[in-house]
Amino acid sequence: MKGFLYKIAGFFVLVILVLALSLYYTPDVVSRTSILAALINKHEALQKIKTEKIIFVGGSNLSFGLDSKKIIEAYKKPVINMGVHAGIGLEYIMNDVKGYINRGDIVVLVPEYENFYTDNFYGEMELVSVLFDIDPAGRKHVNAKQWEHLLKYIPTYSAKKIKNYIPTLFRKSSLAMEIDIYDRRSFNEFGDAYIHWVLPNQNYMSSKKNSGAEKINLEVIVFIKNFKEYVEGKGAKLIILPPVIEEQSFNNQDKMINEIGVALAQNNVGFLVKPDTYKFPADYFFNSYYHLNKKGVDKRTEMVIGNLEPVLR
Fold first, then answer.
1. Running DSSP on this structure, what letter comes out for residue 132?
2. What is the CA radius of gyration of the chain?
3. Would you give the DSSP letter of residue 107?
4. Residue 287 · residue 202 · CB < 8 Å
5. Whole domain around residue 162: which residue ranges?
6. What is the torsion angle, in degrees rounded to the nearest 10, for the CA atoms of residue 219, residue 221, residue 222 and residue 223?
7. 3-state DSSP: the chain helix, strand, coil percent, rounded to 5?
8. Contacts of 83 (CB under 8 A, 6+ apart)
9. What is the mean pLDDT of the chain?
């Protein structure tokens, strides 16, 4: 019996060792070509700008929801859309952009609503990918509580890296492959995902209806408040806009959205406009209740330009 237990223990030690080695040393060929890797390009774009700029901060409601060139033309300022994927987590997204904020900048924070009442704020599998295969230097932004939260994703991610890597040993890579909408190359120079602009809408589900048991994570409100203080301390300005969201999804979350708006306002970090301003009909969305098609992108961009006018004129 004791020998059997030793074998079981040995097996688990071996599995842990393999997963640990995979986490640190197996290249994730999928994530390095995915939209998550666009974060590298966005960092490089920010570093090149030496003048006052506008930085959009949030998840994929931004990456799939802006035409930044039009904002540049309207305000004659450089614009970088830092939106990538909400799974990176709003906490990390805000920490990540801090080092690029300079005097005179306008930071436009557009957070997805789920950040306020789910664990999305701390990041999911996508953040693990960023930390181990895309931007390991970003680990300095992650605190102990966040690592504890991410721990549950790490074994699955490590195993997935092995699964993704093995096929590459038997085939040649091709840079001539068609660009997918979730490819690193699907972003333009301003940080906007644009490949889908010419594609037909895809089927998607509206958000789940709130159960009524959801509670706002006050840590998120405090973090945004501290972020505002940091931005203003750098001589820049923070503006918070509600995310664009499909109408039915808005209605499914309306109670929480209202509570989020009230909580932000009470802490002097309120939305610049009412949340329902950015409630759009379903035919403005491409493949998610946060991802706009070109018609939606054009409408939303015009509205953002108008919202920013009192601040930038």
1. I
2. 21
3. E
4. yes
5. 2-172+179-312
6. 80
7. 60, 10, 30
8. 56, 57, 58, 59, 60, 61, 62, 63, 64, 65, 66, 110, 191
9. 91
Closest by CA position to 181, among listed 166, 200, 202, 196: 196
- The Cβ of residue 285 has, within 10 Å, a number of other Cβ atoms equal to 26
State the CB neighbour count (10 A cutoff) for residue 176: 5
3-state secondary structure of 60: helix
- Round to whole Å and give the CA distance between 84 and 192: 9
Residue among 29, 302, 19 nearest 184 (CA)? 29
Using one digit for the tens of pLDDT, what is the confidence trace for 207-237? 999 999 999 999 999 999 999 999 999 999 9
CB neighbour list of residue 268: distance below 8 Å, 6 or more residues apart:
225, 228
Q: Is the pTM of this model over 0.85?
A: yes
- The CA distances from residue 187 to 184, 218, 292, in Å, are 7, 34, 15
Q: How many domains does the chain have?
A: 1
What pLDDT score does 7 carry? 46
CA distance 30 to 300: 31
Distance between CA atoms of 65 and 295, rounded to whole angstroms?
10
CA distance 256 to 204: 22
Alpha-carbon torsion, ordered 291, 297, 301, 302, to 10 deg? -140
Query: Quick count: other Cβ atoms within 10 Å of Cβ 266?
Result: 10
229-252 burial string, b = 16+ CB within 10 Å, else e? ebbeeeebebbbbbbbbbbbbbbb
Residue 81 vs residues 10, 65, 102: alpha-carbon distances, Å = 48, 10, 16
Pairing state between β 245-246 and 279-280: parallel
Which whole-number Å values give the CA distances from 309 to 49, 276, 303, in the listed order? 22, 19, 10
**Cα–Cα separations (whole angstroms), residue 212 to 209, 219, 253, 262:** 9, 20, 10, 17
Alpha-carbon distance of 287 to 214, in angstroms, equals 26
